[in-house]
Each structure stands twice: as C-alpha cells, then as structure tokens.
Write a structure and sequence with these properties.
The chain has 338 residues and is of the alpha/beta class. It folds into two domains: 150 residues, no CATH class; 169 residues, no CATH class. The protein has twelve helices and eight strands. The strands form three sheets. The protein has a four-stranded mixed β-sheet. It has a two-stranded antiparallel ribbon with strand order 3-4. A two-stranded antiparallel sheet has the order 7-8. Helix 7 packs parallel to helix 10. The longest helix is centred in the middle third of the chain and has 30 residues.
C-alpha cells in the first residue's frame, strides 16, 4: 500500500460528507452499472473534498442530462425564492451549481451537475477528466462558503430587498464574492489550461464592454424602458467582473500574479483608463474579505464591494438618484472611455 493510497483512505475517514448523502442520476447510460459507477466516483471525490472543506451542509448531489430541468426540480425550501437560473450567454454557459436550500430550518446547498460535464470523472485518461474533477471541487467549495456565510449572516438567504440600488449592488457583490471564494478554495485542483482558457474568454468581453454599453444606452433613447436598459448595463459591466473573479480567485489561490498567469488580459486591462483600477481595487477588497470570512459580522462585510460597484456603474454611465418618496431615478450617461 503506497503513501497516496494511505492518504486517500485517511481523507475518506475524516470526510465531513455523510455516508447516506442523497445522490441521483437521470439520463441515458449504456447500463445501470455505468450509472452506478458515475455515482460512486462522484461520491468518492465528494468524500475527499469533504476532508478539505467542511461539507456537513451538503444536502445532496443531482446529476442529469437535462441540467435546466434538474435545477428547476430542486426543492429550495425557502418560501418565494426564485428558481436558479443557469449562466447562458454569448460568452459561455453554466454546467454546475450549488443551489442554496433550507432543510428543517438549516441552510444547506444541493449540487446539480450536467452529466455531459461530469461523466469523464470515471476515466482518468479522458481529456476532460481534470475539468470534471475541478468543477466538482469548485461546487463543493461553494457549499462550504455558503455554510460560512449563512452562519455569519443569518437571515440573508431567502430574504428580499426592496431598495433598488441596494438590491442591484448587493446582487453583484454577492455574485463576485461567490466565484472568487470558490475559485480560490478550489485552485489547486484546477487544470493546467484553466487560466489561459479564462483569459481567452475574458479578452473579447473586455474589448467590447464600451461598445456594448454605449449601444445599450443608445437603444434606451428609442425604447425608453428603464428596467431593460439597466438590466443590459448590469449584464455588460457586472458579468465581466463576475467572470474575472473566477480567474483572480484562482490565481490568488495559487499564489501567483495575474500578469504571470494571464499576461494578455493583464496587458489589455492596463490599456484602460479606469477599469483596471476598479478591478485591482476589487481584488484587494476580496482578499481582505477572504482573510476575514470566519469573523464577518453582518452585511457590512459587503459594503466596500458595493461602494466600488456603484462607482463602476457610475463611470460606465448608470447613476442611481434617490427620490424623496424612496424610489429611484436611473440616469444613463455617455461613457467617454473604459
């Protein structure tokens, strides 16, 4: 018995994932044995990750060919909480999610995986094996982070925000933190091409931010739909920051600079007049939040990020003006540069 085997057995013994964890798989398999092999392998990796993170709040794992239907089929437990929406835009689509759920008054997370992404996990020789393992680890890291935040911020999940500005800024702050934290925690399980892959996806997003945001504001002059224009600008500016948090969280987890792991993106960011400064400040804030995650005291932990994102939206041409009756006037302005 070699040292690796001994270590794995020790990790399995110490795992925080319970033995009776609910697992399910729905889809087309050549045999029942093949489906069971996938479940057993996923459970084995979950057990290993459960020795790295506290996964006592893992509610279950669902694997399905129809990923969207599987997401919609998760019992959230939280009253009036909207169903989870997978990422799906011109820059990429989501294939895995840790869905917040409420079970007997306790916050937990249910992981849903697209079977197309996770099937290679049974074959170490498959070219997508590393991606499958890393993705599962990333979602387990979400489970751990969700648990920490549910304890630090009781009542956050399932709550509603009626203040428009607060809701917009908080949604982005939480989205960015979610992916930064999970990416940083799972970085050492990443594939060698992780950074270069994200760099290639972020470069066209960055290159078109200004043109897309200006087009959205120009369209507003015709359709006059404030909610539509606001949603489009949030998607353009906020989505880049969320996607970038995957990469910056990963590089921070590896302890390596962005300039080393994604040199082309770092060079493109340096050419911007203000956006690079916003991103740099954001990463510094995220690092401070990460260092203090176990001592957060209320939603104040998100304030620095929210303030930064309000500045980003303002520089990008969207301003929230609070009216005397508590409602907001959303002003759209031309952006001279990025």
């Amino acid at each position: 018995m070699d040292e690796t085997q001994v270590n794995i057995e020790e990790m399995l013994r110490k795992s925080t994932v319970r033995d009776d964890l609910p697992l399910s798989v729905n889809g087309s398999f050549p045999s029942q044995e093949a489906a069971q092999e996938l479940l057993n392998t996923v459970m084995g990796f979950a057990k290993i990750f459960g020795s790295v993170f506290d996964l006592s709040a893992l509610d279950g794992i669902t694997i399905a060919d129809d990923y969207v239907a599987a997401l919609n089929g998760v019992d959230r437990g939280y009253p009036d909480m909207n169903g989870p929406t997978p990422t799906n835009d011109v820059f990429g689509a989501g294939f895995a999610m840790a869905v917040p759920v409420l079970r007997d008054g306790v916050h937990k997370s249910h992981v849903v995986l697209n079977s197309a992404l996770i099937r290679p996990i049974v074959d170490p020789e498959n070219q997508f094996y590393g991606l499958a393992v890393h993705t599962l680890c990333h979602e387990m890291a979400h489970v751990y982070d969700h648990m920490l935040r549910s304890k630090a911020l009781p009542g956050l999940y399932g709550s509603q925000m009626t203040d428009l500005r607060e809701a917009v800024l908080m949604q982005l702050a939480m989205g960015v933190w979610n992916e930064y934290a999970a990416s940083r925690l799972s970085a050492h399980w990443g594939t060698p091409d992780y950074c270069s892959g994200y760099e290639e996806s972020l470069l066209p997003m960055l290159d078109t931010i200004l043109s897309r945001s200006e087009a959205a504001k120009k369209d507003f002059a015709n359709h006059r739909n404030v909610e539509r224009a606001m949603s489009e600008l949030r998607e353009i500016l906020g989505t880049f920051f969320v996607r970038a948090s995957y990469l910056t969280g990963h590089t921070d987890g590896l302890g390596r600079p962005l300039e080393e792991e994604a040199p082309k993106l770092a060079a493109a960011l340096r050419k911007t007049t203000w956006f690079n400064t916003i991103l740099t400040r954001g990463v510094n804030i995220l690092r401070e939040m990460f260092d203090k995650i176990e001592s957060w005291e209320g939603l104040e932990a998100y304030v620095p990020l929210k303030d930064l994102f309000e500045e980003m939206y303002l520089r990008g041409g969207m301003k929230f003006v609070k009216l005397p009756d508590g409602r907001y006037f959303v002003q759209f302005m031309k952006t001279a540069s990025l």
